[in-house]
Design brief:
Elements: H1 3-26, H2 30-53
Helix pairs in contact: 1-2
């Protein structure tokens, strides 16, 4: 499975989680709201991890100011 496929799936899960949260909130379903927020959060964390892994040169440029 390619990285583009993983990104597309994660973006779809993120959008589905946000839309699901909106629907669950309007219908006052607590369990659906929590589940939707968990899906959105996990998919956004995976997307951030993919983004940080695609730019390894930035990691070495950070210096600590004393």
């Amino acid at each position: 499975m390619g990285i583009v496929t993983v990104k597309v799936v994660m973006w779809c899960l993120l959008v589905a989680g946000i839309v699901g949260f909106g629907v669950a909130l309007s219908e006052l379903h607590v369990e659906w709201s929590v589940a939707s927020l968990i899906v959105a959060s996990v998919s956004s964390l995976v997307l951030l991890r993919i983004r940080s892994d695609s730019h390894p040169e930035v990691e070495g440029d950070r210096t600590v100011a004393c």
